[in-house]
Amino acid sequence: MADRPTHSTPRSPPAKTRSHSEPPIPSPKRSKSEKSSPPSKRKLAESPPPQSKRKLAGTPPPTFKRKQTETPLEPIIPQPLPSPKGSPVEINVLLLGETGVGKSTFINAFVNYLKFDTLQQAEHGEPVVLIPVSFLLTVGDRFDEVIVNFGDVDSNEDHAHQGQSVTQHCKSYVFDLNSRFRLRLIDTPGIGDTRGLNQDAKNIDHILNYINSLPHLNAICLLLKPNASRLNVFFRSCVQQLITYLTPEGYNNIVFCFTNARETFYAPGDTGPLLRRMLNDEHLNAIPFKKENTFCFDSESFRYLAARKSRIDFDEDQKQEYFNSWNISVKESMRLLNFIQRCEQYRLEEWLSPRKAALDISMLAVPLMETLRLILYNTKLTEANLNANQVVLNSDPIAIDMCTRCAQANIVELGPFWYTQYRSPVLRTGTNQHRHCPTDGKHFFIESIVTYEFIGRPAGLKIEQWQSSFRNFLLKCDRLAHYLRQQKLPVQNDPFQSILERFLEEEQQISKIRNIDSAANRKLCEVLNSIKRIRQENSQQLFVANENLSIFELYAIIDELTAIQTVKKQVDIIKTSRQLKMVENELIIPANLIKTRLFA
Fold it and tell me: Region Disordered: start and end of each range (predicted)?
């Protein structure tokens, strides 16, 4: 592992605090009814000894051993961090796999394992279909082709395009196992999409952003077929990127699940030695691949149920095969759940990594650039001797997918300025509230509704203070971008540039409108045009200084920027938006649907 410098590091407290001499950034005055933002619940891991706080580039990553008492030999009730009184402990399980490996079928089969004791009961009862399925089946002596459709139409499932991932977005299926435990299975878009590597990269980024909003993971299930001839695409597009996000501490939460295992006698088959060789070649031997964390299923019994509900008959030999498949898969599912229950929670906020930093910086990008624009507005007000006024920023959450191309855009007056204000599109009652933003063309995702307000209250800062605030703030942002460039991650290494270009484009469009006074906007255009040069100077300065931030120093800057009230409020709103969308994309399976008693 010594030649892989991208592993993660335990969280330590920030080393720096915001300078008292730095000018504050104006933010709207809170109303009496508005509650102050709760303090950060981020738990800081114990600081490593000084010798472990090395630069990550060019040095071996630190390793962290699990305490011996944390992996008992006998099943016990796990000891998670305290949850709110009366609420069940969540067991979060991420499902990852290539397109067509059977993640959705696995989830459908799993819920029926919990509801029915036998396949015969399921056949004569009402099987549960959490995810609609559609598949081709050949029947009879003439091998007639029949398309079996089972379940209601779901906008998150696309069966129309062969080779593309059926699941379009992450979606959680939440099982209330009993009063104490709640199981969350996270279905994800498949890897190896026929739309190419760019689509895979988008899917991986979407998956990592999704889990980055969770407090913890209990298990990461890598679903594989037992007869795979190669694993290159899945490893390069998925596993390797996952490893840049996890720490070695999270390797023990990785689980291997083999689907369609009936044809290999419920064993890993040809994929087993291929997987072991791939782990060795990628220097990932620390990831356990043993009987204890390897599970072999065959979810074809669910397809049998779907076919039977479509009145397709099978002979007795076929039925017996499906009955045996059901029984074996039920036992493996229970063994999997018991293993996951014993796994220590992987606390996502406790461990730092370059890829996690990239995700956090990406989430910060819009709040930081909007705050930078706020500084520019107030600088220009001060230069125009409008000191009795200031511009403040407000932010509101949204619960739908939206981008600058599908949002309502209005030109709004703001004192001497005009700006482009984006609003949620008006949707007709009864229409699908989930808008899937286009992936082609130039567009920018919107995770909060940002508005500006011109108020009659002085900010109390001089021109020199505003200008200094602008320069210092921009330099801190450029230090974040400089870190990303050094890591050479498969992500956008400058998340700020496209936002600044959009700001400039909006100002230029406003300046061309004839029936409004856009003199103040033209002055903003001049500053926005100069930012590219200033950023180049900052980049050169950082390069000459050979700045090579450690992960701790990077997060000291991130924490310093996030502590600014205007930035913090936007970040909190974005987190709220993500939670709202996560709730909208989850399905809760009530306890009265589950007959199997687990962890009771």
Answer: 1-84
Place of tokens 């040809």: 270
pLDDT of residue 56: 37
Q: How many CA atoms lie within 13 A of 67 on its CB side?
A: 3
Q: Which two tokens stand for residue 295?
A: 């599970």
Count other C-beta atoms under 10 Å from residue 148's C-beta.
17
pLDDT in the model for residue 537 = 98
Q: Which two tokens stand for residue 118?
A: 């036998």
Q: What is the pLDDT of residue 7?
A: 52
Distance of alpha carbon 467 from alpha carbon 476, whole angstroms: 14
Q: Give the H or E element holding residue 589.
A: strand 586-589
Per the prediction, the chain carries an average pLDDT of 83
Q: 437 exposed, middle or buried (CB, 10 Å; 0-12, 13-18, 19+)?
A: middle
User: How many helices (H) and strands (E) would you count in the chain?
Assistant: 14, 17
**315-322: long-range contacts, CB 8 A cutoff, minimum separation 24:** 321/262, 322/119
> Quick one: DSSP state of residue 215?
S
Q: CB within 8 A of 527, min separation 6: which ones? A: 376, 379, 380
79: confidence class by pLDDT, cuts 50, 70, 90 = very low
Q: Which of 92, 308, 336 is nearest to 219 (CA)?
A: 92
Domains along the chain with CATH numbers: 87-130+169-351+585-593 (3.40.50.300), 353-563 (no CATH)
What's the pLDDT score for residue 39? 39
Please tell me the predicted confidence (pLDDT) of residue 185. Answer: 97
Q: CA distances (Å), 595 to each of 231, 332, 335, in order?
A: 38, 17, 17
CA-CA distance, 71 to 76, in Å (whole number)?
Answer: 10
pLDDT bin (cut points 50, 70, 90) of residue 438 is low
Res. 513: pLDDT tops 60: yes
CA distance 276 to 130: 34
Say if CB 165 and CB 238 are below 8 A apart. Answer: no
| pLDDT score of 491 | 78
